[in-house]
Amino acid sequence: METKRTTFNNRLLPYLLLAPQLIITLIFFIWPAAQAFKSSFEREDPFGMSTVFVGIQHYQRLLEDPNYIDALLRTMVFAVCVTSLAMILGLAFAAAVDRLTRTSRIYTTLLVWPYAVAPVVAGVLWWFVFNTSTGLLPFFLQKIGFKWDHDLNGTHAMILISIAAAWKQISYNFLFFLAGLQSVPHSLMEAAAIDGSGPVKRFFTISLPLLSPTTFFLFIINVNYAMFDTFPIVDATTAGGPAQATTTLVYKVYQDGFVGLNLGSSSAQSVMLMMIVMVLTFVQFRYVERRVQY
Amino acid sequence: MVENRPILNILTHLFLILGFVVVALPVYVAVMASTQDLPTLMSGPVPLWPGSHFIENYTQLLTNVSAANGLPNYSHMAMNSLIMALVITIGKISISILSAYAIVYFRFPFRQLAFWVIFVTLMLPVEVRIMPTYKIVADLGMLNSWAGLTIPLIASATATFLFRQFFMTVPDELLEAARVDGAGPIKFFRDILLPLSRTNIGALCVILFIYGWIQYLWPLLMTTDTGYYTLMMGMKRMVTAQDGIIPWNFVMAGSVLAMLPPILIVIFMQRLFIRGLTETEK
Amino acid sequence: MAGIHIAGVSKIYTGGVKAVNSVSLDIADGEFIVLVGPSGCGKSTLLRMVAGLETISEGEVSIGGRVVNRMEPAERDIAMVFQNYALYPHMTVYQNLAYGLKNRGTPKAEIDARVAEAARMLEITQYLERKPRALSGGQRQRVAMGRAIVRKPAAFLFDEPLSNLDAKLRVSMRGEIKRLQRRLGTTSLYVTHDQLEAMTLADRLVVLSAGQIEQIGTPLEVYHTPASTFVASFIGSPAMNLVSGELHGDRLAIGPAVFDLKGFAPTSGPVTVGVRAEDLRLARAGESSMPFRVDYIEELGSQRLVHGTVGDQTLTAAVPAETQLGDDLHLAVEVEKLHFFSKESGRRIADRAPQSVARMEPVGAA
């Protein structure tokens, strides 16, 4: 790993500079992660007096537990919904704003602020809009003969949290897609126009292929977001219900561990989640490395 | 724009305006709902025009404890949110810029290891290690304290990487010139590197303030004492209604108050915000 | 004021690569020394070791009689001018100049006086309150020089300070650096890859190749008596012609041509013969000469450079601009203008001009 051509030769100072970051990391990140790893192989007796090593029992149980498998599949569905919704809308807005010159800044301002809304607030806002008795959308849906009820219908609840989660993420995707589109060389567009392709065709044959690195990067980021950053949306609105229909993996870890106090299973779930993040981070950084090289 | 197509231009504008309306819908609804009284809200779809209870709802919320289900009043929670966001922002920036400085401008044993330890934090979000982290904070007696609320959150790989990235672009000769000019590591950092990092620090401030402001899970784990509740905790407590009735007028007013500061920051510091966002995630 | 003494200095990188190989050099007080060589020859590394920006793997550097190997750059009493100027972008010109003095605890009044004096000398007084980005390349260059001057150091170190300027500005700044150095009389060590810059600036120049000194000498010595084929081809433009020849007694054969060296026989057998383009001329009738086939001609205005071949070896000759040229020429050269180099080592074999023999310096490090 690079440093500067010349460096300072102090011996102690660099350690002092790193100390705060490293101490916090070790105490609050590495140590708990190691603990989770350790207790995922142990069982605590009901009084917390002693622990026994149980091997991969927790993992075995977990993978045999239909609830966990359901949560896993559900989380995947949720991640795919949120990611595709947020990315398609973000791309559409970006493509539209990229067409404009004078007004692009105004539209950018109009579209970026949802990023700053806390997930819990985003959840509550959409929850209210969809509120079964007083919400706006169910009222209109009823007029076209559709009964909306996320309190009882699991699919509805899933749609609700997907919309809330995607809504918050649109602005992020929009900004990255816009930056990507604006870095497409103008001369390329002009050449294509001279070759006789219209704006729509140009978008699909030139812009979109050139955006593929951005798209891939955003895909990873969005999946990461949907899996881990949406906890507040679930917790404040559906609380995992109805009948577990919106219990994502992260919510389940919280429920089983913090609420249900099942330390071993919760730890095993934590370890599984860590592996997922590791894979995502690995993929992301491999890709970033490539982007830097080219 | 490559060519001029008036119809396509009009369609573009229409699409964007429609998009904005849809995106802004829940916020508009929230603002309108926050000006109604509860009976109006309970009696059918939300009116899409302002009601007459704007001042009443907000004063209640900001000053009156009982208005929000036995929570501290909103001013108190807003202050908590502000303190938390500021401490996290300043803390993250401080420790990250120092570690990046050490990693880039010094050569020492275990430098690589230190880098990887910091890198690993990317892979360990709070969400995946809820229980053991809670336990550690509890063991250290940091539950229900400012230290517990903030310190565990101020380790930051992304901010460290951002500063490292930036330091790598600072010409080597600047350090060499400074050394010839008699500046040691502290002086170089204070006189040269810190002033040069101003824009990056500004961009990070925007992003990290938002990060700190919207924290949810961590305060949820750390605080049982309502005195430490942030606005986000307030949201959660208000919608987990006692006796089944949610005071929607207060909830919506609370939402507006909770989202206003970061939204204003994003709008008025758009340039720094975009820079911060795109730089930290690279 | 002080000389710089470099004794057996080497830079060895991890992995054993020797960037600088046992270089010795004595720089007298007030002397202007230019280190010149192609990129990667170790000239910058040597300069940076003198500055204290690189550690010295072997040998010893002393400045003004003090061994500085273990000293911080700031303690060595040197000032440095960098290729990209390395001005502090957030400080005004004044602050840039004053920073080094401030760090040394120089009193404010003294700083003001010194900055004012340096600014006057460099004619940058009206820019003192500006930031570097508001200055042109030439002005930045002056500020960078000013930062060195205010310190009144024992030695100036220049690391290719002119290579970021356009050609015209480079020439005028070159003159200015020379004038300034004369006026201040400060010992200077200057690194460049531009042989013309080296020739015009140096009291003595040091030609480096692959981390070793090829030759030390005044510009004219190096030009007229290059110590090796490397120096011969590096110094002077166009580069000196180097062709293979063979000596038999005092007869020199180059391709089909044979020259009579009139009793001069420096060696015998194969030899590399050097001859500068401007020393070649069209042969008069009956004179011993080389048949020369013209490939193409470069018009320089004042003269024409004729590129072509003698036998199978390429050669360039400079002829007066108005010379009429056909496709086949005959070139002649005065015997004392020939340089002889060993075929194996590329080192110079003493030539016959007695005064240049006497002027020759011991070559390289002992």
Give a description of the structure:
- The complex is a heterotrimer of chains A (294), B (282) and C (366).
- By secondary structure, chain A is an all-alpha fold.
- Chain A contains 13 helices and two strands, in the order αββαααααααααααα.
- Chain A has helices at 13-39, 57-64, 66-99, 104-112, 119-129, 136-143, 154-182, 186-194, 199-210, 212-229, 231-236, 249-259, 263-293; strands at 42-44, 51-53.
- In chain A, strand 1 (42-44) and strand 2 form a beta hairpin.
- In chain A, helix 3 (66-99) packs parallel to helix 7 (154-182) and helix 3 (66-99) packs across helix 10 (212-229).
- The longest helix of chain A has 34 residues, at 66-99.
- Chain B contains 15 helices and no strands.
- Chain C has two domains: 4-229, Rossmann fold, CATH 3.40.50; 238-341, Beta Barrel (OB fold (Dihydrolipoamide Acetyltransferase, E2P)), CATH 2.40.50.
- Chain C contains nine helices and 21 strands.
- Chain C has helices at 43-51, 93-103, 108-122, 137-149, 167-184, 195-201, 219-224, 229-234, 354-359; strands spanning 4-12, 18-27, 32-36, 58-63, 66-67, 78-81, 155-159, 187-192, 204-209, 212-217, 241-248, 251-254, 257-260, 269-275, 280-282, 290-299, 303-310, 313-320, 328-333, 339-341, 348-349.
- The interface between A and B is large, with 104 and 108 residues.
- Chain A: It is a multi-pass membrane protein.
Tally of DSSP β-strands of chain B = 0
Q: Do you know the CATH architecture of chain B?
A: Orthogonal Bundle
Mean pLDDT, all residues of chain B: 87
**N→C terminal distance of chain B:** 28 Å
Distance N to C terminus of chain A: 19 Å
Write the element-wise H/E pattern of chain A from the N-terminal end onward.
HEEHHHHHHHHHHHH
> Strand sequence of the main sheet of chain A, in spatial order?
1-2
Largest sheet of chain A: 2 strands, antiparallel
Comma- or semicolon-separated keywords:
heterotrimer, A: mainly alpha, MetI-like fold, 72% helix, C: 366 residues, alpha+beta, Rossmann fold, OB fold (Dihydrolipoamide Acetyltransferase, E2P), six-stranded mixed beta sheet, six-stranded antiparallel beta sheet, 33% strand, disordered C terminus
